[in-house]
Design brief:
- This protein has about 110 residues and is of the alpha+beta class.
- It contains three helices and four strands.
- It has a four-stranded antiparallel sheet, covered by helices on one side.
- Strand 3 and strand 4 form a beta hairpin.
Length: about 110
Amino acid sequence: TIERRKLSATEDFNRAVELYISTSDKERNEEIFETLKRDRTDIETNLGVELEWERLPEKQASRIKHPEDLDGTITELTADQRNYLIEWGVDTMDEFQEEFEPRLSTLGSN
């Protein structure tokens, strides 16, 4: 698999939708990441946000993520904040898929 999309919430509540680039070949992962990064301006313009581009040299993978900051811990979220986060996550995952899927398809999965 080239990528996974996920909404993550860590203990410090750094919520993000991310493209996680993880094949069995570290060099291939870096090649995919660098190819996408060359189009960074177009990708970020199309999505309307500045993304975090993380090479993750200590791992075999790389990731591109769009964090969403909300104050507080998971247990402190109001119902409105939870609903917002769910809607934001679903919408952002859809936008990521629209933007990245065609680009990844042209790169293939080898």
